[in-house]
Amino acid sequence: MSAFRRVDSADRPLRVIQVGAGGMGRAWLSTVAASPDVELVGIVDLDLDTARAGAAHYGDPTLPVDVDLEALVQSTRPDAILDITVPVAHHPVTTQALFLGLPVLGEKPVAPTVAQSLSLVAAAEITGELFMVSQSRRYNDQLVAFKQHARLLGRLGLLSTQFAKAPHFGGFRDEMDDVLLLDMAIHAFDSARYLLDAEPVAVYCESFNPSWSWYRGDAAASAIFEFEGGLRYTYDGSWCSPGLETSWNGSWRVSGEAGAAIWSGDDAPVSEIDGQPGNPGALGSVGVEIAGSLAAFVSALRTGESPDGEVHGNVLSLAMVEAAIASKSEGRRILIDDVLDASLASALEVEQRDDVRERLASWGSARAALGQVASAV
Asked: What is the CATH number of domain 140-277?
């Protein structure tokens, strides 16, 4: 079992450097500024003007900025790193931070590929540092309540998500391959794992691009996942469906032997058990999206409790995406373990660090390694 180092900062804010100050970076800077649990001590960005603008947005134009993470770490001595870079930079930035001896909270996805994600799992194990992925939609009190309603239903059989939105983003998303599956569906896939308390086994998926779509890649997809225990999860989504749109969280239904529960994605979930309304009782708050992720990261480093999003427990959400894309491309059912095995082989082939390669080789199988979710010491 892997273990991560605790940070003794109970009597003061956690000192952090944020890497990446672009669009999503600014949302994080606002969240950091609003949190009493963290103190921003520097910003790293490839564009110093962007870093300076980020410092001004944070509210402190005098904040140290740099293009070199190691240099800023040496001068500011932070407790942790926030990796809010674009996905292609997640692997190099997080690897560097972990081997500098610093825990990392990073934006989703873990990395662009499952192979790179496995490399980061190995790096976290070797360094003994926490790497948590901000799968921020888990930090939603309504989602937590929906899971509690689902627990009232006895044995579960089917979970489904309908997602229909029509955003005109412009920029890189308009040109992405498999834009819906790559950029959005991971939120629903990760939530399905959380709701079912089970792991995916296989998937059959089809995707296409409606004739009116403004995206180059496929903006619509339907997938059927088989989970452990014979559970089925179905996802039906589109990013070019104007009119009667769903919540950004999607519209959900779960069916069990004693009844069913539904969640609109924006309202309190409801359930019916044996013909009567379900009542899971009062629940505490888990926070709201990235603010919830940040609070959970700080709490994990202080208490030693492994958080939602710890890297071992997050990689399978990305594996669901890769398996769905493989299924739609090959026109057949894809086993999740086949994706994991191929990714481990790829990671071993391209890994540049000898210590990381040795750790990857020691696993035997990726599924087994990912099952050993980290705990703290």
From this structure: 3.30.360.10
